[in-house]
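dude i think i finally got it to work??
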Amino acid sequence: MSEAVKTPVSTSLPPKVANSAWSPLGEPLFRSLWIAAVISYTGTWMQNVGAGWLMTQLTMSPLMVSLVTAATTLPVFLVILPAGALADLVDRRRFLLITQSWMVVAAGLLGILTLEHYVTPWMLLLFTFILGLGSVMNDPAWQAITPEVVCPENHAPAVALNSVGFNVARAFGPALGGLVIAAAGSGVAFLLNAASFFGVIFFLYCWKRPHLERVETGRMRDALLAGLRYVRGAPLVRSILIRTGAFSVAASSLPALLPILARPHGPTGYGLLMGFFGLGALAGAAVLPRIRTRFSVDGLVAFDILLFAAMTFAAGRVQAFSWLCLVLFASGTAWIGILACLNVAAQTMSPSFLRARALSMYLLVLQGGMALGSAAWGALATRVGVPVALLCSAVALVGGLFTVRRHRLTSQQLELTPSVVRD
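look at this
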């Protein structure tokens, strides 16, 4: 499951109506899903470390290494919009059972083939693409079920706890993956990822989904067109998508080229570097609500983009492992600050019967930008070197910040979006 809308925090509601941050865990249904999701997220991060490291063992080409990230997110161009429409048209529970099972099979086969030493660079990219296909199909429905497993008063805290769960996994999953790879190889990490999906599958199998929302019927083509018309006619949605696209393309260089930066430090070092990124994101998520009361949404995003740009530049210049850890920690803190504001806007920018389609368009821009950016920065690094490519990425981040100044994000806009109206 992708990061895309897994990192929002509950900044869309005024403090006077927000519940306790931990109150959703008092609901057994959400608590069961949250625990299963954290296990699944941990497996996903182990998979990411295993795929990135395995590619550096098969080839040291910056382009091929960066294509691992691109292959994960490339399916967004092919299926994200139909996935959003399907999630609004069909039973989301059954749909999620299919997508989760798809990812079990893909990760399991890749693990077996890796242990048998049959995997080539292009085969690794193919299976990474297949896993990404399942993840992209899964995401809109996954995000859209959150209001169905908690009471309305706990919706915003539940979204925040999803962020906490994802970032807990981001902090510990890569480090655990690095240890597994060092001890047993990437194939075992892939098999553990396949096993990690079974908790979510068990939850979905046992869940008796309520019928609480308007269900739209009709052809998928009509559903897609309705979603596109909504996005085209909503200025706030366009601003969110423009801001997301400008950030995702420019910021994709660091995660795409990190396996090459970490190569001298071994698989455990690579896992620890990704773990420090996750720890930074977790720390940022913890302090973000307090910071959010003192600064505007737009000011917070601008500061974090500048910080992320500085850390992207620094990553290409520092050599010591301890300094790289510090750079990745600061990068993670900035990353969560940016995506938290964008993701909470994406969660709240549409009515519930359009939610999955609106989220699918947000994911198209976010993950599509990451896929295009990863391939572009990898190609540039092949020609001019990794440090110069990271420098160009940092410049693009700063330049993008100034070119989208008129597409501002404000608390007032986020609080007045259609989804705050009860269905």
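The chain has one domain: 19-420.
im so relieved honestly
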